[in-house]
From TrEMBL:
InterPro entries: Ectoine_EhuB, Solute-binding_3/MltF_N, TAT_signal. This is Ectoine/hydroxyectoine ABC transporter substrate-binding protein EhuB. The lineage of its organism: Bacteria, Bacillati, Actinomycetota, Actinomycetes, Kitasatosporales. The keyword Signal applies. GO terms for biological process: ectoine transmembrane transport. Residues 60-290 form the Solute-binding protein family 3/N-terminal domain. It comes from Streptomyces griseofuscus. It holds the Pfam family SBP_bac_3.
Amino acid sequence: MAPPHGNDGHVFRPELRPSRRTLLGSIAALGALGAAGCTRVAAASGNGGELLDRLRAQGVVRLGIAGEIPFGYIDKDGHLTGEAPELAKAVFKRLGVDRVQPVPTEFGSLIPGLNSQQFDVVAAGMYVNADRCKQVIFADPDYQMLDSFIVRKGNPKGLHSYRDVVAKKAKFATGTGYAEIQYAVEAGYKQSDILIVPDQVAGLNAVEAGRVDVFAGTALTTREVVKKSAKAEATTPFAPLVKGERHVDGGAFAFRPTETRLRDAFNTELRELKRSGELFRILRPFGFTEAEMTDLTAKELCGQ
């Protein structure tokens, strides 16, 4: 998730709402496709940017994805899918843009890639936080999410929170750039002692092999990745503490700061999909529940 997440304290909401699996082979196969498929768009100018008009004229929008299940990835048949790409297809079609084109990259390269115009929008389930809000503008979140741990069967160390991890001196791992890094540090875990792995699959492997006691990720991805594991399980979802308050994260599409017109048009269609229930129908096949639908706003999560 871009550079390690900043923290912006928000009171946890009762209505809830990532981790991600990198398909390196698929990314390699489509990396050239995404890069070669179209030329770069010139810098936006004018009243909130002209990108929406250009996308309508071109009939295609380039999506920055990070090869992470279930947020945005290439499936085994070579097709683009995931909650964010499927939502992008619906929203951009309503905006008059018929096609989406994947541009796979590493998660930490999404914001730099967006701002250097390698693609038009980040469609990767990216958490909204204050640090990122200084670099990009976000649509309102399309989902909200709690954290969860992957632990060995039976949870022998009784790990249910970051404070438990610190108190019980557990060996702790999480993913590259994940928000969970900062949540652990805030609870008192030494950052240099955290094992950083590529994604939740690597995290599961580390727990199963006994290299760590716990891997932290989102409630959605931890519960999905352990389904076929005979050695590990996911803990009950919980809200991490940020500045002493329970905190809920929200994931959203990101746009270049100049593209307020496109962001606002996206938000208009997103609100309608939420109102009609279509958003949940799009996200449900990827493991999302009604508890992970949200009315959080980007403004709230940006701390404005």
